[in-house]
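Why does residue order matter? Because the sequence determines the fold. Keep that principle in mind as you read this record.
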Amino acid sequence: MAAESHAPNAGEYIIHHLTHLGTGKPKGLVDFSIVNYDSLFFSILLGVVGCFLLWKAARAATSGVPGRFQAAVEILVEMVDSQAKGIVHNAHSRKLVAPLALTVFVWIFLLNAMDLLPVDLLPAIWGWIYGAAGHDPKHAYLRVVPTADLSITMGLSVGVLITCLVYNVKIKGVGGWIHELFAAPFGNHWALYPFNFAMQIVEFVAKTVSHGMRLFGNMYAGELIFLLIALLGGAFTLSLGGLALAGLHIFAGTVWAIFHILIITLQAFVFMMLTLVYVGQAHDSH
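Structure:
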């Protein structure tokens, strides 16, 4: 006789929501054979959405009285441009760096904003589709916040690292940058070359890892809190305690969602500012 199915407990519920739709579980800290299809799908989708919104704003721009959408985009563009001017002093470089920073901010904001959707909404829809295709809905995994996936945030930070390396070579030349790798920060002396080079490598690695880990840690923690709040609603029953938990679920979810709007905006801004700072440092000579 087959075992009867049972409702998932709190641990099973959280583990299910933290499991990616992908090719499997990583076999170590770094496993390049694993692909998280959900993170890739939502990252690409929201990247296209972000580009479309910016394109629409540019297409509808007018010299007359702007609408609300155009005014909001203009304020955002002016904010990013002013930050870029204060950090990257090369006017030619800003022609690429400022749009890059704007794209980073909009893209990460949209990725973070997926955390504001009800935690069971898209997974439930995917579970229905998965079950309709003849599969067991219990194995219909889906995570909808790409920035709560370390592979996505580290991919973004590595992209910033590559941009910095390109500008190091472009601004200083290959020879000048190699000389800087061995001559800074302790001084241009042959006995200090190994220590200088080691410190430069440590700096590049530390900036890249902290850049990606900061965004991941904040969004992962936010996702966990939303899941814990959702468990309050799952404890609803027609009793005094059950009604109290349901009321707490609604109250806590509303308060955390409102506060989380600040978090997702701040995290996008911090990532953008660090991108500008790191690219600006690539223009400086030691």
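The first helix runs from residue 10 to 17.
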